[in-house]
Amino acid sequence: MTMYSHGSNFDKEQFQRELRQVLKSQLAVIEKNATTKDWYLALGRVLSQYTSMNLLDTEAFIDGEKTRKINYLSLEFLIGRLTGNNLINLGLYEKIEEALQEMDLALSDILEEERDPALGNGGLGRLAACFMDSLASQALPAVGYGLHYEYGLFKQSFAAGRQVESPDTWREALGYPWERRRPELTQTVGFWGHVEQYSDDRGKLRKRWVPGLKVEGIAWDLPVVGYQNEITLPLRLWECHTGDPFDLARFNEGDFVGAQYPVLEASNITKVLYPNDNHEQGKTLRLMQQYFHCACSVGDILRRHLALGRELKTLPKLETIQLNDTHPVIAIPELMRLLIDDHDLSWDEAWDICTRTFAYTNHTLLPEALETWSEGLIAHLLPRHMEIIFDINHELMVKVQQQWPGDIGKMSKLSIIQEGDHRQVRMANLAVVTSYAVNGVAALHSDLVKRDLFPEFDKLYPRKLTNVTNGVTPRRWIKACNPALSSIITEKLGDGWIRELSEIEGLKAFADDKEFQQAFMTVKKANKQKLADWVEEHHGITLNTDAIFDVQIKRLHEYKRQHLNLLHILSLYHRLLNEPEFDIHPRVFIFAAKAAPGYAIAKDIIYAINRVAETVNNDQRLNDKLKVIFLPDYRVSLAELIIPAADISEQISTAGKEASGTGNMKLAMNGALTIGTMDGANVEIREEVGDDNIFIFGLKVDEVKALQARGYDSFIYYDSDPQLKACLNMLQDDTFTPERPGELISVARNLLDYGDPYLVLADFSAYCDAQCAVDKSYRDQSSWAKKAILNTALTSKFSSDRSIQDYANNIWRLSSVR
Ligand code: AZC
């Protein structure tokens, strides 16, 4: 057996032979005709042979261990490109680079050929990917369970400034080289049908679900390579295959054509990722996706457990199932059903197992993102599961009655079933009631989960609600994306920080060191140049790298307030043109964001920024002081280019709305200073870096609540602040769309007539003041360098290795973390 790690047993000539062989035998390309794309595919295939072996060996090794295993269930894993990252984690980057160079091939060009697997929307999906990296790098036994979408998150382009979506065929024509099909792991999943009672052999009355349709779940494994430790964990993605429609036709006798509809619907189950971030849509197909994902994953977990000859009652001791948001919560009634109906456990036995197996992470407080499913839909699609949910709810109501006798209000608030004309199943309530631990994703957020979202559950289940602050992997988000920074860190501290990020605190000692400041700023400048070159090449816009690179990159959402950023840009534009005394250090505002295709105002905000950018960038009077650029198709690989080049990180959500944020962490680690509200993990970033090294502004959570309770009126700000008024008027008087009057009005209307739901105007003036402070601060380059260095040095808390250790110690209770 060959373990490929540390590159210690790497044989260059053999690798070159394998590469040529794969090119010819598998891709049918002769060397002299090979394109960079062909080489990328060949390289991926050769490397994935190594990781496949490591994956199977890790599997065997883990099966032999008697420790608890983590099953991370998530509808999204936003993994980004794998080739470069896997090379680093395998310890093969330099060796392969050299081997390719000998063949006249540039690794960096080859890596650019990989299309990002975008199997997630934003923060929640990217977090899952970082967690898998940390689990593997800390050699923790784990499997990531997700869906093998045929189309990932849509590709975004702009047509005359407006977002246009197109399908993302991430696997391209020849397949994704890193994935492996695992036919032996196939699962069968039912839908629809009915529940029947029957007497078993011993005359016991039992229930079983007779589905109206069965589909197959095919497993695809992607390798999650641990950092130079010989561990490769599976990211197991399920793909839906529908069987022969004629079976169904027979089943439904008579209506031959009509009987195909469910099959047609089912054949779409893993076609596309729903493109919503922090918003649920309530579509039947989405529930089918969720159930399909859960049935395959729970089925696989039980299969593994039983194959090792283990008893069901030891399941909680040996397996834990972490639910990434409510999307996989239907796994709870699924496991109950399997234990009771298929394995003949009593209700109490099954419930005992479930309540010690599941744990749930909440990622948002936004009401529109809290999932509920119509009871009628669940009863129709998954009749046995609906029965089980009712039974779980019955027990819950008994408990609520004991705790608060006669309190109907409490019953209706806590009930899993929301009463009303169209009864709904509240997935979060089901998750909280069943899980042995429930966590929020940053200290403030977890506090609000307790205080505002689930205060009664916190009483009912003391200590169940807890916090695990998010983190990001330093392998991808420093080492891989910022090689220049990595090498100056390593020069000073050695390379232990890649595995144990707290070692990076050693940089603190060099924060005042002029030479190191210079080195740090030289790296930053080079990264800005790299981004500028890319922007010039792809978008034909020249960026001045002496300018402050001010970055807001994340999904487009009103609560994230890209339009607050826009208003500030308008105020700079207005002042530069109208106030002769007014001057600023040159600034480049960089945006990147996708809007959910159905989210009209978010798309209007993108359009407004693009139109403003066009005018501002071409206004000669500004003397290059101001540039605005909205880069299309935000994705992991674009983030990897932008983040190392950022001076300022925009984290300006309405306080209480951003659960954590993780881009804020990546940017701070790479030496960008945060301008942000007291929201999500910004609060903890401030704690770590200190007030001098961050720009905090705006209303705090309690002030937001108080203002809203008093009755918020955005016109008060509009009428009393001439600066703000001028900005909003520019949106309304067609300054930026002279040829198309009224086109930017919706953004202004949203903030005025429609009540400004996220208090943009209330925070405008504080935001402008904070931006002034940024401008002033940047003029002292040495002091700025110090602040930037301290951001890199003092944000090690936000390594996902630390998050995973918190989960391991406080939630999963793994005996040995290392
Ligand atoms: C996001 C949160 O909005 C973000 O603040 C957090 O950092 C991230 O999860 C990871 O915890 N939430 C989502 O993406 N949520 C949904 C339902 O899409």
TrEMBL record:
<keyword id="KW-0119">Carbohydrate metabolism</keyword>
<keyword id="KW-0328">Glycosyltransferase</keyword>
<dbReference type="InterPro" id="IPR011833">
    <property type="entry name" value="Glycg_phsphrylas"/>
</dbReference>
<dbReference type="InterPro" id="IPR000811">
    <property type="entry name" value="Glyco_trans_35"/>
</dbReference>
<keyword id="KW-0663">Pyridoxal phosphate</keyword>
<keyword id="KW-0021">Allosteric enzyme</keyword>
<dbReference type="Pfam" id="PF00343">
    <property type="entry name" value="Phosphorylase"/>
</dbReference>
<dbReference type="GO" id="GO:0030170">
    <property type="term" value="F:pyridoxal phosphate binding"/>
</dbReference>
<feature type="modified residue" description="N6-(pyridoxal phosphate)lysine">
    <location>
        <position position="666"/>
    </location>
</feature>
<comment type="function">
    <text>Allosteric enzyme that catalyzes the rate-limiting step in glycogen catabolism, the phosphorolytic cleavage of glycogen to produce glucose-1-phosphate, and plays a central role in maintaining cellular and organismal glucose homeostasis.</text>
</comment>
<dbReference type="InterPro" id="IPR035090">
    <property type="entry name" value="Pyridoxal_P_attach_site"/>
</dbReference>
<comment type="similarity">
    <text>Belongs to the glycogen phosphorylase family.</text>
</comment>
<keyword id="KW-0808">Transferase</keyword>
<dbReference type="GO" id="GO:0008184">
    <property type="term" value="F:glycogen phosphorylase activity"/>
</dbReference>
<comment type="function">
    <text>Phosphorylase is an important allosteric enzyme in carbohydrate metabolism. Enzymes from different sources differ in their regulatory mechanisms and in their natural substrates. However, all known phosphorylases share catalytic and structural properties.</text>
</comment>
<protein>
    <recommendedName>
        <fullName>Alpha-1,4 glucan phosphorylase</fullName>
        <ecNumber>2.4.1.1</ecNumber>
    </recommendedName>
</protein>
<dbReference type="GO" id="GO:0005980">
    <property type="term" value="P:glycogen catabolic process"/>
</dbReference>
<dbReference type="GO" id="GO:0005737">
    <property type="term" value="C:cytoplasm"/>
</dbReference>
